[in-house]
Write a structure and sequence with these properties.
Distance between the termini: 80 Å
Shape: elongated
Strand order of the largest sheet: 1-3-2
Length: 220
C-alpha cells in the first residue's frame, strides 16, 4: 500500500531539492530519516518534515508497520516563482527570482510483497533451467526407420555425390541418411520422403542411386 504526503509551495528551488530527493529514493524509512537528520541542507529539513508526515499517516490512519516501509518515490515539482527586484546603479534594477517547489514523498510496503512473489517465481525459473540442461529427445526418421540423437560415428562422405554439398550432407545425416548403402537401396518412395524433409533440388532419383551404388562398391 502507498502513503503519500505533499509539501506545497516550499521555499526552495526544485533543482536544490532534487539533490536530496535522489539520496533517499528507495531507502527504508529509518535510513532515510537518519540521512536527512545529518544532512546540513535546507532541502533535507523540508524532506524530513514531509517524510515524518507520511510516516504518521501510515502508522495512525492506515495502521501499517513502520519497519516494513520504504521510500518508494521522492518527487520535486516546480512551484510558482515570486519576482522581486533589487535597486542598482543609475536608476536600474536587477531581478530577484524567489523560486518555490512542491515536494511529494510516497511510502510503500510493496517491497515485501514483491520479494515474496520473486521467491514464488524462483522454482519456475529453476524448472526452465533444468529443462534446458536436460538432453534433447532423440529424433526419429520414420521413413528410414532410424532413431538417433546425432549422426553415427561411421558414415560415408555424402559430399562426393553429385549435387550434394556440405549443407545438404548435414541435412541428410540429420535425417538418418549416413551411408551410400542406404541411398543405393532406396526406392522412389524413399527418395520422395527424404526429399520432402531436406529438399534435394536438382537431384534425380536414378542418377543419385546409381552413383551411390558405384561409390559403395569403390569403398569396399
Amino acid at each position: 500500500m502507498d502513503v503519500t504526503s505533499t509539501y506545497k509551495f516550499a521555499r526552495i528551488s526544485a533543482r536544490k531539492a532534487r539533490d536530496v530527493a535522489r539520496e533517499i529514493q528507495g531507502l527504508p524509512v529509518s535510513e532515510a530519516l537518519d540521512l536527512l537528520n545529518f544532512t546540513p541542507r535546507k532541502g533535507a529539513e523540508l524532506f524530513g518534515k514531509t517524510l515524518k508526515t507520511a510516516l504518521a499517516d501510515a502508522e495512525n490512519n492506515f495502521e501499517l508497520a513502520v519497519d516494513g516501509l520504504y521510500v518508494k518515490s521522492a518527487i520535486v515539482g516546480e512551484g510558482p516563482t515570486f519576482k522581486r527586484f533589487k535597486a542598482r546603479a543609475r536608476g536600474s534594477a536587477s531581478a530577484i527570482m524567489k523560486r518555490t517547489s512542491h515536494i511529494t514523498v510516497v511510502l510503500s510496503d510493496d517491497e515485501v510483497v514483491e520479494k515474496a512473489e520473486k521467491k514464488a517465481k524462483a522454482p519456475k525459473k529453476a524448472e526452465k533451467k533444468a529443462e534446458k540442461a536436460a538432453p534433447k529427445a532423440e529424433k526419429v526418421d520414420e521413413s528410414a526407420d532410424v532413431a538417433y540423437d546425432s549422426a553415427p560415428a561411421e558414415s560415408d562422405d555424402l559430399k562426393k555425390l553429385t549435387g550434394v554439398g556440405p549443407k545438404l550432407a548435414e541435412k541428410l545425416n540429420a535425417a538418418g541418411v549416413t551411408t551410400y548403402e542406404q541411398i543405393a537401396n532406396w526406392s522412389e518412395d524413399d527418395f520422395n520422403a527424404v526429399n520432402e524433409q531436406v529438399s534435394m533440388k536438382g537431384i534425380e532419383f536414378d542418377s543419385l542411386v546409381a552413383e551411390a551404388k558405384t561409390l559403395q562398391e569403390e569403398s569396399k
